[in-house]
Design brief:
Layout (H helix, E strand, L loop, with lengths): L15 E3 L6 E3 L1 H6 L44 E7 L6 E7 L3 E3 L13 E6 L6 E4 L1 E3 L2 E2 L8 E3 L2 E7 L7 E8 L4 E2 L3 E4 L13 E4 L6 H12 L4 E4 L34 H14 L4 E3 L16 H6 L15 E5 L2 E5 L11 H11 L8 E5 L16 H13 L4 E4 L5 E8 L2 E2 L5 E5 L31
Parallel strand pairs: 15-16, 16-17, 19-20, 20-21, 21-24
Antiparallel strand pairs: 1-22, 2-15, 3-4, 4-11, 5-10, 6-7, 6-12, 8-11, 9-10, 12-13, 12-14, 18-19, 22-23, 22-24
The structure holds fe (ii) ion.
């Protein structure tokens, strides 16, 4: 169904076409599968289309005084409630935070053992008679330098619900009933059972979201389109555009050059979790790391907030890392790859990917979709070929297994390619879609690498960290 014979497709020299769009892209995959009026990739190759940037958008962060980011609960009442999927329809993760974060010179981490991690749940219209228990953690972001403030989080809870029915509405409360600290009732719908004619109706895909007034425009758009699932392809809170004293900047490389380490202001993560709760406490969000999640701190620790804030189906999908994992949503197998951890052919991620791809049954999940943060194919000058080394290592493997679509972020624009493999139109290559225009406070990508004088020197383009 997905991969038609090569002779059914045309090729041309025109590889990429693009258009700007400041809000998210909502992909109705079932419509694409059915062809319902949406052009298929077989109708291409398409000619380039570029839409000018709408200058009316506001890439300005919500301030910490905004009611949308302030703490509204008391004591150990849950806040920042979110939902993510496990590997199949019968299981989901519920996450939340209790207690207040601390920031300053003298901070004492909370004891995770002081509050239980319990979800009471049941099908809609029935009692919430099921109980699930999980685990809790506290993370710290430490800067052992004069004048920099340390941070320690509230207690972060992750609970996995199992034995759920497919495509079914559930209601739940989370918290600690022994402390009378339970949340309001929230609702979610499970994914449909996996099969070739069984799909979530709408999946929102967004990258580089941040927490600006543009972000609120994107999230309003997402919410009004009632997605069943959200993919967030990296760069989440942009806490690393701030010093530990809360002073912000508009890009990560253009300021604060005098600090001894790239600082962050971790309360931005709490603000993000509070702002997002109304949407992601009922719609599962699947996150993969971006460069803004690196957040280096003492003892060379990185990605600590990212790995702590979200629940990932890593263990369930045979991964030993929060940086890469996979899951099914109806007839789609999603592969979430880490661009900021080893992708070498000899590394753990590559070997996991080989195993995961080999285990996919295309009779059950005909669609195979991969995401990671930094795009392999992009026509923009910004981040041009930064991920070229990852492409060299992994593209053949993805091509061998016939990946249908790749979603990336990082480049702050929307762009969609024809089917490509190794820089050449190829009917069996994936379509690459970049959605890095989620709304963060950094600049939009506008200049293309093929404009006169704009092509970066190739030896300078790979990202140092990667
Ligand atoms: Fe990025």
């Amino acid at each position: 169904m997905v991969l038609l014979p090569p002779e059914a497709r045309q090729q041309s020299q025109q590889i990429l076409y693009s258009l700007f769009q400041l809000s998210l892209v909502t992909h109705n995959l079932s419509a694409i599968v059915d062809g319902g009026g949406v052009p298929t990739t077989l109708d291409g190759p398409f000619k380039p289309v570029t839409v000018p940037l709408d200058q009316s958008f506001r890439a300005v962060d919500l301030p910490d005084t905004d009611p949308l980011v302030q703490r509204t609960v008391q004591g150990f009442q849950p806040e920042q409630i979110s939902l993510s999927l496990s590997v199949s329809h019968d299981s989901v993760w519920i996450s939340w935070i209790t207690g207040e974060f601390q920031i300053g010179d003298n901070i004492e981490p909370l004891d995770p053992e002081t509050v239980a991690s319990i979800v009471q749940y049941g099908r809609l219209g029935r009692s919430m008679r099921h109980n699930a228990t999980g685990y809790s953690i506290v993370y710290s972001q430490l800067y052992p330098f004069e004048g920099l403030q340390n941070y320690t989080s509230g207690i972060i809870h992750h609970v996995r619900l199992t034995g759920l029915r497919p495509n079914t509405l559930y209601q739940y409360q989370c918290g600690d009933p022994s402390l009378s600290a339970m949340s309001d009732v929230h609702y979610f719908r499970t994914m449909p059972v996996s099969g070739p004619k069984s799909y979530p109706s709408r999946i929102a895909v967004v990258g580089d979201l941040g927490l600006t007034y543009n972000t609120t425009s994107t999230v309003d758009h997402m919410t009004s389109n009632h997605p069943d699932l959200i993919l967030l392809v990296g760069d989440v809170s942009y806490a690393n555009l701030y010093l530990t004293n809360g002073t912000g900047a508009d890009c990560s490389s253009c300021s604060f050059s005098n600090t001894p380490i790239h600082e962050t202001y971790q309360p931005r993560w709490d603000y993000w979790g509070r702002y997002m709760q109304p949407l992601i406490s009922s719609v599962p969000v699947m996150v993969i790391e971006g460069n803004h999640e690196i957040e280096e701190q003492a003892e060379n620790q990185t990605f600590v907030a990212y790995s702590s804030q979200f629940a990932f189906p890593s263990e369930e999908s045979g991964s030993s890392s929060t940086f890469y994992y996979s899951f099914n949503a109806g007839g789609i197998h999603f592969i979430m790859l880490g661009a900021y951890i080893s992708y070498d052919k000899s590394g753990d991620q590559y070997r996991w990917l080989e195993r995961d791809l080999a285990s996919v049954d295309r009779e059950v999940t005909p669609w195979l979709i991969a995401t990671w943060h930094a795009p392999w194919y992009s026509t923009y000058g910004a981040h041009y070929r930064e991920a070229e080394c990852m492409r060299v290592e992994m593209e053949d493997l993805l091509y061998k297994y016939g990946i249908d679509i790749v979603f990336n972020g990082h480049v702050h624009a929307y762009e969609r390619s024809n089917r490509v493999y190794n820089y050449t139109l190829n009917p069996c290559g994936p379509v690459y879609i970049t959605v890095g225009d989620g709304g963060n406070r950094e600049k939009m990508a506008i200049t293309h690498a093929d404009e006169p004088g704009q092509c970066p020197e190739p030896s300078t383009t790979p990202d140092d960290y990667m």
